[in-house]
Amino acid sequence: MEDYIEGALAAGHIRPSTSPAAAGFFFVGKKDGGLQPCIDYRGLNAITVRYPYPLPLVPVALEQLRGVRVFTKLDLQSAYNLVCIRKGDEWKTTFHMTHGHYEYCVMPFGLTNAPAVFQALINGVFQDLLGKGVIAYIDDILVYSASMEYHVHQVREVLTRLQRHHLYVKLEKCKFHRSAVTFLGYVISRQGVEMDVVKVRIL
């Protein structure tokens, strides 16, 4: 926990706070064995005006994959931290720990509008490519093509745009130039789209 605070302070993601309000802070386990900081923003979310930006309907988005032969899956790294909190609103994100209060300067996980805000951002990055070789669902991106030659060009364009907007991928979670990938709970291949068997077993 102290390592996270020191790193976030050094990166400018948080700063000490004197806010009279504060939420609880804890970690939850991630699938890769790491830890995800989590803050109990239920009180703040209950009085937050919702940002009505829609998230993509996954089954509808996947309908466009007929005839596709090559796939690349990208997972963005610390994506929310690239969105700044509006100046003057930082105090609302305060969380407390045994040795002090801190507030976020960037958008943390747990805010009710965070997914919609980031979806709006990523849609702006890929606006002319969405439905034409790219599906973007928050910080998960799928690039798809009918041929390997064109796919290489598409992936290069996607990565160039991400870099231009200071968005970076978790290389260890990306899959490049595959004939099949898992994406948002589905297995996608040249044969079509089906539910991930592992997810179905869990249910």
UniProtKB/TrEMBL annotation:
<dbReference type="Pfam" id="PF00078">
    <property type="entry name" value="RVT_1"/>
</dbReference>
<protein>
    <recommendedName>
        <fullName>ribonuclease H</fullName>
        <ecNumber>3.1.26.4</ecNumber>
    </recommendedName>
</protein>
<dbReference type="InterPro" id="IPR043502">
    <property type="entry name" value="DNA/RNA_pol_sf"/>
</dbReference>
<dbReference type="GO" id="GO:0004523">
    <property type="term" value="F:RNA-DNA hybrid ribonuclease activity"/>
</dbReference>
<feature type="domain" description="Reverse transcriptase">
    <location>
        <begin position="9"/>
        <end position="188"/>
    </location>
</feature>
<comment type="similarity">
    <text>Belongs to the beta type-B retroviral polymerase family. HERV class-II K(HML-2) pol subfamily.</text>
</comment>
<dbReference type="InterPro" id="IPR000477">
    <property type="entry name" value="RT_dom"/>
</dbReference>
<dbReference type="InterPro" id="IPR053134">
    <property type="entry name" value="RNA-dir_DNA_polymerase"/>
</dbReference>
<dbReference type="InterPro" id="IPR043128">
    <property type="entry name" value="Rev_trsase/Diguanyl_cyclase"/>
</dbReference>
